[in-house]
Amino acid sequence: MNAGIERLRAACERDLGDPAGWPTPVGYPDSLALCIIDAIYAPGARHLTVDSIVERYRSYRAGQGGDADTDGAPELLANVEALGGPEQWAAQIGNRRPTSTRKDAPLRSVALTETAQAFVALGIRTTEDLRVIAGDPELAREAKRAWCAVPGQRSGFTWRFLLMLAELPGTDPTVAGYVAREVGDDAADTAGLLAAVAAAAGWHADALHQAIWRFEARRAQELPSSA
Q1: CB within 8 Å of 29: residues ≥ 6 apart
Q2: How many CB atoms lie within 10 A of CB 19?
Q3: What letter does residue 107 receive in the DSSP assignment?
Q4: Helix or strand (DSSP H, E) at 28
Q5: pLDDT for the residue 227
Q6: pLDDT given at position 225
């Protein structure tokens, strides 16, 4: 275990940059709307860009007398509709980043709308609904298939980040894959290794978890925003 901790810490120091520059770990345990927004816009983007989009959504909803931090998928869809559709939502709240580098790739605001629609169709309206679904393997597979069918989400990176943002228990498979690659046989207790490295280095455990996810998202040959 000690050897594994040392190897994992060395890998993190090599790959993740100065911990002072890591984004503050985020989570939206009561807002499926914010989970969707962050998960769709995070891949390939600077965290400050995503933070700005989240804050614009919060500000707009507050102006309507709503609360973004308790919004579900229906409220997100209503917001898109109120602004005139995905194009207008991109102009006022999101941005015009496409889902991939393909010439005909739709905007991420289109993907955001389609994922919210798919969730509502499956009865996933809130983060609590998502937690219930995630606890049932068959329903979880159905929800993941619906998410990954949306342009830009095929690889599953954004699905896994969505679950992380919703603060579902367990270690994200993307992060677990990084740990396994770096420490091999010592990776049996991934959560324990991450906690031990964070404690030894004086890092915030959630910040370490998300920093690894972002590194893996950049590293992947097929980015989460592709296809």
Answers
A1: 127, 166, 167
A2: 16
A3: B
A4: none
A5: 36
A6: 38
At 125-156, the pLDDT tens digits run 999 999 999 889 999 999 999 999 999 999 88
Residue 93: phi and psi, rounded to 5, are -125, -50
CA 149 to chain centre: 16
Tokens representing residue 41 in the block: 């816009």
d(CA 172, CA 120): 24
Instruction: Determine how many CB atoms are found less than 10 A away from the CB of residue 182.
Output: 20
Sign of the dihedral defined by the CA atoms of residues 137, 139, 143, 145, in that order? positive
Angle at 209 between CA 158 and CA 125, to 5 degrees: 40
Q: Identify the residue whose tokens are 């609590």.
A: 128
Q: 215 pLDDT exceeds 60? A: yes
What does the alpha-carbon distance between residue 95 and residue 82 come to, in Å, rounded to a whole number? 17
Q: Tokens for 188?
A: 């049996």
CA angle (52, 162, 148) in 5-degree steps = 115
Rounded Cα distance, 180 and 192, in Å: 13
Give the whole-angstrom CA distance, residue 187 versus residue 205: 17
In the chain, what percentage of residues exceed pLDDT 90?
Answer: 60
Under DSSP, the state recorded for 94 is: S
